[in-house]
Amino acid sequence: MRGTGPVVAPDQNASHQLSTLRRFLQYLRPYRKEIPIALTLVAIGASTQAIGPFLLGWSIDNLIAKGNLPDLLLLLGLLGLIYGLGIVAIRGQILRVGWIVQRLLAQLRQDIFLKIQSLPMSFFDRSEAGDLMSRLLNDVNTVNQAFGQTIAQMLGNTLSLIGIVIAMLAINLQLGLLSNLVVPLMILTTSFFARWARARFRVTRQTIGELSAKLEEDIGSVREAQAFNRVNLNIAEFDVLNAANRDANVEAVAITAAFLPSIDFLNTLATAAVLAYGGYLAVTGAATVGVVTSFLLYVQQFFRPIQILSQFYTQAQSAFAGLERIFLLLDEPSQLQDAADAIEMPPIQGEVIFDHVTFGYNPNQLVLKGVDLHAYPGQMIALVGPTGSGKSTIINLILRFYDVSGGAVKIDGVDVRSVTQASLRRQIGIVLQDNILFSGTVAENIAFGCPHATQAEIEAAAQLANVHEFITSLPEGYATQLGERGAPLSQGQRQLISIARAVLINPQILILDEATSSIDTRTEALVQTAIARLLKNRTSFVIAHRLSTVTQADQVLVIQQGQIAERGTHEELINQQGVYANLYALQLGAASATEVLN
């Protein structure tokens, strides 16, 4: 099982967390006009919450104590209007802030997807699809839960808290200062738990990424797991990762469970202090009953936003852990960016040159060591050799999935690093051993590399690929819907559709990587005929373990340990009685034995 790449975030301090928040808030820039509206609604809602206790306390001293029932009824009506306005404002702020945040998160998902699509192949060599999906889905969803659902409340409660503090200090300075004595304790408590929670939530984001990667891998290989009787072992491995994720989440929940009662205790402590000292002031005549009542109401309101803010701060630790992983991905360098002065690749004629090319996926371990080759337009170049010798690497360098470590790859005399990747790959077709089809219609799969192709062009490509008759026999013809990876088509049928896909883009350079393996003999004949048509007047590079498929090649290159050990035509290499001749004799003998057995 591969590593998850740059998944584990380094230990982050508070300043780095603030930097992460600032970066996240940059996504608010497109909504400059909407934000003042939302803040206005927040301010109105907060103001209505702060004015209520003052009016109630004032009514006790000036209306209820004096038996002024008419004015009391008027005040109650005013309070009703104020609280009604507050309800409308709070609903409006939730809708407006939610509208902004959801668009912000949609843009974040878009940025992640665009980044994944633009990353070089070397990134995917060390990363897992499940973990990348976890960042796109789980981590963004965690941010949504923290910010999308509570940010409006957080803003409102922040303003409410400011208004309450001002009102308390204005009504009675002594009681106001007493009520605020617990604030430093609350800040210390929140800071302690937040630091503890941050580490735990970071672990939860990492473990859910590992769990997603394992799940994606095992679902995709369930057939192999059952065939090799590995189901129980896979279940055991999943149980380990699942338990690690469970334990991380339990620890995070335990922190929250300890944090909230601590805030409640401070709330009770402040209420008791206000009640005791306020009662004393009321008895001694230093404060009225209405003032004490207002303070008791304010203390309850004072701690409610603090509780919400504190709870949000704890939840935000999980969101920050997710944002750290997201930004680590977004900061991943795109090693194969087009050069600043890159040009469009001119129409390819088909000449391919490897000029003393060296390359290694790991800088300390070269895969290709000084490879020189020259393919002329229209030639068929066969690459043969043992697994791991460097055949597929040569193909990857032609497509510029990687950059050479030394030397140069040139097409029609143009270094592939000097042209845009899109204009290069647009003119190169590829048919792999295990071609992937996508959920969609047969026609959409054929037009995958040429989405604007007409139906007539799609059908012409299918006819050239020997798959038109099969497609028309399907229940809905070219409109037949395929499932994931082309289900329920056979391997050979998927291969023929992949050939049609390559035909449609009309490439001048064609790459075939084991295109006829893993299919039955009858389908192989159709595939070989389709390939023969496709190869005509095109430069082609063919990787094949079955040497009988490359006997007509213009050049056969025998790759061993990253070097070209032999080169020549089939007949020339047979006459040399070297590596190729021995391989061919072994395969010919195996084929003869198979014919006898059959």
TrEMBL record:
Gene Ontology terms for molecular function = ABC-type oligopeptide transporter activity; ATP binding; ATP hydrolysis activity
Q: How does it sit in the membrane?
A: Multi-pass membrane protein
Domain (ABC transporter): residue spans on this chain = 352-586
Chief localization: membrane
Supply the InterPro entries for this chain.
AAA+_ATPase, ABC1_TM_dom, ABC1_TM_sf, ABC_transporter-like_ATP-bd, ABC_transporter-like_CS, P-loop_NTPase, Type_1_exporter
Q: Which residue ranges traverse the bilayer?
A: 37-60, 72-90, 154-171, 177-197, 280-299
In which compartments does the protein localize?
Answer: Cell membrane
Any single Gene Ontology cellular-component annotation: plasma membrane
Q: Which Pfam families match?
A: ABC_membrane, ABC_tran
Q: What sections of the sequence does the record tag as coiled-coil?
A: none
Signal peptide location: none
Domain of life here? Bacteria
Q: Which SMART domains match?
A: AAA (SM00382)
Q: Which residues form the ABC transmembrane type-1 domain?
A: 37-318
Q: Which UniProt keywords apply?
A: ATP-binding, Membrane, Nucleotide-binding, Transmembrane, Transmembrane helix, Transport
- PANTHER family attached here? ATP-BINDING CASSETTE SUB-FAMILY B MEMBER 10, MITOCHONDRIAL, ATP-DEPENDENT PERMEASE MDL1, MITOCHONDRIAL
- The identity of this protein, by name, is ABC transporter ATP-binding protein
